[in-house]
Write a structure and sequence with these properties.
Radius of gyration of chain A: 24 Å
Shape of chain A: elongated
Largest sheet of chain A: 6 strands, antiparallel
Oligomer: homodimer
CATH class of the largest domain in chain A: Alpha Beta
Strand order of the largest sheet of chain A: 5-6-7-10-9-8
Helix content of chain A: 25-40%
DNA sequence: TAGTGGTCTAGACCACGAC
DNA sequence: TCGTGGTCTAGACCACTAT
């Protein structure tokens, strides 16, 4: 056997077998599936191989393992939608378009009490604030209203924002791997809809993201998209109901 | 050592060590990290333990492993937002609210040519169509406009929709684990905004989901939410740039 | 050629759950 | 008590990569 061919490996055979039974409906949610010992005999493999196959399936959300009891098909009572966001520059590049950024505002200023709380800094501590309009082939795509804790990007005021985004710059100096996001449909303010070149009252997709590193909140971004750009495409995965 | 305490297991120690270095920025994207052999010596563990720790980290997107070369910190050039959707009934239950459903339409009818293509069925094949308004404490929360391929839910016309959702019913008989989703901010039609009890022109969050099982498309749902309900909360994960 | 990750084994001990 | 999953080991062979 080719030891590196993932499609014929013993572990993969077990995984395919289990996934097939679950997807076809033969093994239904809540059903107990063969134990490690049973799979060991069925497939003629060692217990470790069966164990790691089931462990991987648990990680992928197909099964739930209960020590001392058994392995069960996960209850699909919930599902998650995954939206993969690229940096605006990359998003436009993948469509073959041309990107241009208009810097509407860029300032270092004192935090409002509310912002100070959000960033967990002293009242009146300084924050970097930028309002940037991203255009694809000269059509407004996205309005980016971003606050950044200056300690993470000390040279924020000097960065050339026409050829790189604040997002990518932040990722370079401080990869932040956790965050929360709130998504809403709103009516943009007159100044915002004017920048996005849509009629007042046009529905706008608003995304507020806050991302943090181990040392605290890095940035809070409010992203607005309107018109045909106000569309996100994602994929759905069913997950365990726990 | 307690063999089942996941927080002190050897594998977990290695994972924590690596994640810590990456999160703190000490190991930057693209950096090569210690090999299985090196970790084996550093932690005094067997190679298999180091291997499975790194394998799990690769599965979680923290590192990229290249056979023959080494293990590298993943490039965080993209990130995904995860929105966890519950069944409307469960969502309301978690908030302690009371659910009521109003069935606006329910019919078995011929598919339009467009729908027939989407469902990959014969032209004029039959489809089940339902328009259901879900209310939380008598306040409209969500308008559900759903098409279902009848073969997956033959008793669709007889189901009591006041105490269960079509979603949960479908999940019971045919757990579908894959789907796509398009999310937009739109102006609802007059009839839709009237049902949702918001002013005409109010921004509405529209989600169109199509989900499929191994035997084809199961259902296409168009979900509308307006006002304060038009808000989704998700979490962000940075993923490898590949 | 040496080092890397990919795969698999046979055996061990442990904690937990069901009976 | 017995079967379950959780953890770990020591060793093996393989394919690929860098040099």
């Amino acid at each position: 056997m080719d030891k590196t061919d993932r499609s014929t490996g013993l572990r993969t055979q077990i995984i395919s077998h289990v996934v097939g039974r679950i997807m076809s409906g033969e093994w239904k949610p809540g059903d107990r599936i063969p134990s490690e010992g049973a799979l060991t005999e069925m497939f003629g493999v060692s217990r470790m191989t069966a164990h790691h196959a089931l462990r991987e399936l648990a990680g992928r959300g197909f099964v739930v393992r209960r020590s001392g009891s058994g392995t069960y098909v996960a209850e699909p009572s919930a599902y998650v939608s995954e939206y993969r966001h690229l940096d605006v520059l990359e998003e436009i590049a993948t469509r073959g378009g041309h990107h241009r950024a208009e810097v509407i505002h860029r300032e270092m200023r004192s935090a409002t009490p509310e912002e100070a709380r959000a960033f967990e800094i002293d009242a009146n501590g300084s924050l970097f604030h930028a309002l940037v309009l991203h255009l694809e082939d000269e059509v407004p795509l996205e309005l980016e209203d971003r606050l950044i804790a200056p300690r993470f990007l000390p040279d924020a005021m000097e960065i050339d924002l026409t050829c790189q985004t604040l997002f990518s710059r932040l990722m370079l100096v401080r990869p932040h791997r956790e965050g929360s996001e709130v998504l809403r449909a709103v009516s943009g303010s007159p100044s915002e809809t004017k920048l996005l070149r849509v009629d007042t009252g046009t529905p706008v997709l608003e995304v507020v993201r806050r991302t943090w590193s181990t040392e605290g909140i890095v940035t809070i971004a409010r992203i607005l998209r309107a018109g045909t750009a106000a569309q996100l495409v994602g994929r759905i995965k069913t997950v365990s109901g726990q």
